Amino acid sequence: MTVAVLMSVLNKDPMTAAKDARLATEAVMVIQGDREGTAEFAVPDCEGNERGVSVVYDSGRGVGRSRNTAIDCAPADADILMFCDDDIRYDEGYGKAVAEEFRRIPQADLITFNMRVDATRHTYENQGRRRIHFWNSGRYPAYSIAVRSDAVRQSGVRFSTLFGGGARYGSGEDSLFLTDCLKAGMKLYTSPVFLGRELERPEGSTWFKGYNEKYFIDKGVLYSYLYGRSAGIISRIYLMRHREQWCVEVPYGRALALLKKGVAEGLQLQAESSGKEEDK
Questions:
Q1: Taking the domains of the chain in order of start, what are their residue ranges?
Q2: Does position 204 have pLDDT exceeding 60, yes or no?
Q3: Hey, what CATH class is 3-198 in?
């Protein structure tokens, strides 16, 4: 079972990115910056064999665009595709670990894994091998996801280019991707296996700038895409649940108003998009 890493990189030398990530499998590296073009090089695997890394330079912006480009450029013979950011460092043998989990859960089209992260960023950790449903699909970051290449290609599911680092709205492309995979009939599972760790970014997050007003508007827009007309109620529930953490910079009442504004904005965007599709 062949595993390939799809790595999204921002303004970083490809050899440095490969070394930092400890790549030891085939990989596609999409580097967003100020240039266009392609390149290739090789990295050694844990047995000393060379594995090819394809580099795509892209002057566009947005992590969703980057991940979609990587999917489209993935090796044709790869059975499993893993999504990766440029602040992830893999453990030795990560490729074999991923392949073994897909053998262990043969019905799985997609599996989310664990990564070690700083305590300040720790959110959720898989405790076992369980099915992912619509109600719990919003807790997994893209860098934890591995998917069967034939499943994602046949489904046509891709990442939203509206959400995520470098996009119009700050985050959520991973949650939308998993939701769309479920809508496409794919079977999603969790694994308790750890594949590596998240490195500290000296420059900080590419999208999170605190629980400011934009954060709440962006969340409202995301909830509208995830939950449709139920987004207003669900956003209120989330706000109440995370009130102590979220409502430090922005008071509760203002945060709720911003969430509502974001929900309305998102529903309007979807209505406009649907109208354009009907006009074609």
A1: 3-198, 213-279
A2: no
A3: alpha beta
